[in-house]
Design a protein that fits this description.
alpha+beta
């Protein structure tokens, strides 16, 4: 089993490209001589249990066929199993979602043939993993992530985008559509942000915040442009109270990663982050909508082994 791939396909990824393109992907995997078994995820969070079970059954090579949410679920499956160390698992990715921001960071091409060539080469990279503990209604929960967590406005936009996906109405412009419509109603939140056990403490009227391991989210926005995925540190981008017109005006700067110089933007590096607020502030990680404040982040250096381009 150790050299055999276990492929987990999200059939709904990329407006059902997962289901439509799987026969072609399967033929390419066979043509490259890769040995594999495969299964389709059937519901939200299903890939978590599929990945854990595959590891328990002896698989050490997992291949995600889907978007950033699918990758996130498989990563959580890797971390929730207790059979082997997380770095005993090799994770490969074929990106077919609408955002594909993790793949953008690691030069995973959208072309299936080229991507499978990369998977066959098995050039591995040990990257950091984030862990966030948060409130979920009256209870608490936790989630691992390998790209970016968004708090505040970023999480509201992700939630609206995910609602469009659930209705089958998502496309490459869904994030921007959700961004503009959400901006009209969004309100700032009074919050306290504690970095590395009070190394930095900010009391701010928060618009949006990103806790990044990698650099991109929202389908190509370079929200945390200085993030290095194996330095053992989060990169934080904190946007305090800002006029809505300014968001429209400087949107291209976020895509280019040049927004850190704006007067209402602050950036830090951290191993731990605690966020509290007077009213609940929403959270998303790797594009997956979760709970709300209070929340606490910690980093796991070199916590997972991934295949990169």
């Amino acid at each position: 089993m150790e050299n055999k791939w276990y492929v987990i396909i999200n059939p709904n990824a990329g407006s059902r490209k997962g289901e439509q393109d799987w026969p072609a992907i399967r033929d390419l995997l066979i043509s490259r001589g890769l040995k594999f078994e495969y299964t389709f995820s059937e519901y939200h969070k299903h890939a978590i249990s599929l990945a854990s079970r595959a590891i328990e059954n002896g698989y050490r090579h997992l291949l995600a066929v889907g978007g950033d949410g699918t990758i996130n679920e498989i990563v959580n499956g890797i971390f929730k199993q207790a059979v082997v160390s997380t770095t005993d698992i090799i994770l490969g990715v074929l990106t077919i979602g609408t955002g594909n921001d993790w793949g953008r960071m690691f030069d995973i091409p959208m072309d299936y043939e080229k991507a499978i060539d990369i998977i066959s080469a098995e050039k591995v990279f040990y990257q950091d993993v984030g862990l966030v503990q948060y409130k979920n209604g009256s209870g608490s929960d936790y989630r691992y992530f390998i790209n970016i967590a968004g708090i505040g406005f970023d999480a509201i936009v992700a939630k609206k985008t995910n609602s469009l996906k659930a209705l089958g109405k998502s496309n490459s412009f869904s994030y921007l559509t959700s961004l503009f419509s959400s901006l009209l109603k969004y309100k700032h939140h009074k919050s306290e942000i504690i970095v590395d056990e009070s190394k930095h403490k900010l009391n701010t009227s928060l618009f949006s915040m990103n806790v990044g391991i990698c650099q991109y989210n929202g389908g190509g926005m370079k929200q945390v442009p200085n993030a290095i995925p194996d330095d053992g540190l989060f990169d934080l981008t904190i946007i305090s109270k800002v006029r809505k017109f300014s968001v429209f005006r400087h949107l291209q700067k976020i895509y280019r990663g040049t927004h850190l110089s704006l007067p209402y933007v602050k950036s830090f590096q951290a191993k731990t982050v605690i966020i509290t607020s007077n009213s609940p502030i929403n959270l998303e990680v790797d594009g997956e909508s979760l709970g709300h404040t209070p929340m606490e982040f910690s980093i796991i250096p070199s916590g997972i082994k991934v295949i990169t381009g």
